[in-house]
Amino acid sequence: MIIFLGFIYSCRTEKNFNILDFGAVRDGKTLNTAAIQKAIDECSKTGGRVVIPKGVYLSGTLYMKSNVELHIEEGAILKGSASFKDYPDNKVTYKNAFTHFEDGKLYANKAFIFAENVSNISFTGKGTINGSGDSPEFNLGNDDTSISRSRPCMLLIIDSKHIKLNDLTLENSAYWLQNYLGCEFLELKGLKIYNQSNYNQDGMDIDAKHVLVEGCTLDVDDDGICFKSHDPKRIVEDVVVRNCKISSNCNAIKFGTKSMAGLKNVSISNCNIQKASADPIRHWQKTLKFIDQPITVISGIALEAVDGGIIDSISIFNITMKDVQTPLFIVLGNRGNKPMGDKNFYNTSAGNTAQQAVGKISNIQLKNIKATSHSKMASSITAFPGHYIENITLDNIAFNIMGAGTQQEAITPLIENPGAYPENRMYGLAYPASGFFIRHVKNLSLNHIKLSVRKPDYRSSIILDDVLGVNISNVNLPVPEGNTAAIGLKNSKNIKVINPVFKSENQPLIQLDGTAEPEIAIAGFKKYKGWLTSL
Question: I want to staple 435 with a disulfide (CB 3.0 to 4.6 A). Which of 79, 385, 409, 461 is the partner?
Fold first, then answer.
């Protein structure tokens, strides 16, 4: 995969515009909206840098303009007002599924820093932007109500080009921290993000083309790095993420939801994933069964195409995870959303017609991934009957798994649930496989996979259900308890198994269920009586 990123910034910085010269007061109490906005407006006339010097500056909504660099010096804090009255509704001309709703009204259109249809803007310095997300006025719960969606994003940048954020600390947003909708040429480098004060506190939400995210540290309650596609006519593509540390209570790296057009040509590499430093809301060990430590990440990597878009040509490599419930979660579903603009756009009830077309997931490569998991929800790659995920390669994967699966869990089938909200627990809290559950997939390669369990487990390591075309090579699998096979094959065809490592000579390596024995070709394995069994 070759991804070209043409970042060109032309913000002129010959002239500085210090906000103190425009009447700003650095006491953390005076509302400085007018003074800071005046500095931005003046700067935009010629281009240059708006300087926020050391101190605490309280402000309401600020409107970024083209050719402006907002430079927040070390020791400076740009702090959002704690009151709704300082965040007006913003007219958004770019139609998208984040701000435009089926009742014809705009929601989620307030922001601390807002921009639409601008170019060449940057946010730099060693200072801090704080969104006052812990304000009692913003304590409105999850964003499943219109009033909760009225909380201000910290940064809401729409339909804009050449955007750069470098080295800042971003913290404590009231709603989404940084949301880039329909943008192009976006660079996020060296950011330090802490977001643990409210609901919906993602680290970054990216709906953009030509993106570089590099060297960022995130510690957030919600998803870490999240890719969205809110416009069915505008795909997200040409994205590089590298050298980031992501701590999350939800999904660390997530594609979707709201993948309406979709995402393609994305490379993610050299990232570390772990639990968040705090757990103010989720408490997974108390609210879910079978979680073996207090704070966990839901899924380390989640690819979710459930709203009609594609996920194509994705490369993820050199990833280390710990504290995750589920290392990998890949799902093709169909929530029944209608095309944007339809009055029933969000209606997922039975009988809903004129739905978005079912999306597609294909050409996914995952390589050099290590993980330690803490639940009975295995990594999964699943579609639904009549639809397939295609061309998936997993190479050099090492998972240390919690285990503890029971005999009953080993034989309990997973439901089909294509209309559900996509999450690892959409199929239940205990999967019949300990390592991988893979269903409705074409052209799958599992190479150099090593699985180990910390607690005795009766479940198969790998279950393949309706998988057509499989190459399994150099897998190293634990021996399950009882007489369970290491690999379960159900209704699958064209299977090649090469050089498996399975340290047993009396327990089945493979169990067939609706899969004919001639569909299996095996090499590099010393067969013994009972190595292959059928239901």
Answer: 461
CA angle 224, 226, 232 (to 5 degrees): 170
- H-only helix segments in 376-503: 407-411
Which structure tokens are listed for 205? 């939400």
Q: State the CATH number of the domain containing residue 133.
A: 2.160.20.10
What's the CA gap between 89 and 517, in Å, rounded? 64
Last residue of a domain, one of 127, 157, 187: 157
Q: How far is CA 209 from the centre of its chain?
A: 16
Structure tokens at 347: 């209606």
Q: Is 243 left (phi over 0), alpha (psi -120 to 50) or beta?
A: left
**Cα atoms in the 13 Å half-sphere on the side-chain side of 101:** 12
Residue pair 227/198 in contact (Cβ under 8 Å)? The answer is no
The Cα-based distances of 236 to 76, 107, 207, 266 in angstroms read: 34, 22, 6, 9
- 74 Rama sector, left if φ>0, alpha if ψ -120 to 50, beta otherwise: beta
Tens-place pLDDT, residues 241-282: 999 999 999 999 999 999 999 999 999 999 999 999 999 999
Tokens at 133, concatenated: 């997300």
Q: Is residue 162 part of a domain?
A: no
Rounded CA separation 522/468 (Å) = 16
| Contacts of residue 202, Cβ cutoff 8 Å, sequence gap at least 6 | 176, 177, 195, 220, 222, 223, 224, 226
281-334 pLDDT, tens digit each: 999 999 999 999 999 999 999 999 999 999 999 999 999 999 999 999 999 999
Q: If we measure between CA atoms, which residue out of 431, 364, 11 comes closest to residue 187?
A: 11
Q: Dihedral (C-alpha) 168, 174, 176, 181: value to the nearest 10 degrees?
A: -90
Strands (E), 285-359: 297-305, 310-332
Q: Report if residue 337 sits inside a domain.
A: yes
* Distant-in-sequence, close-in-space partners of 371: CB < 8 Å, separation ≥ 6: 300, 319, 320, 321, 322, 324, 327, 398, 399, 400
N-term to C-term CA, the chain? 42
Please report which confidence band the pLDDT of residue 105 belongs to, taking 50, 70 and 90 as the band edges.
confident
**Residues near 527 by beta carbon (within 8 Å), at least 6 away in sequence:** none
> In Å, how far are 155, 188, 487, 488 from 534, measured between CA atoms?
57, 53, 12, 10
User: Which of 96, 122, 157 delimits the end of a domain?
Assistant: 157
Pick from 370, 192, 407: nearest CA to 272: 370
Q: Is residue 485 part of a domain?
A: yes
- For 312, the domain range is 301-345+355-535
Domain count, the chain: 2
Angle in degrees, CA 327, 330, 335, rounded to 5? 135
- 286 in any annotated domain: no
- Res. 340: pLDDT tops 90: no
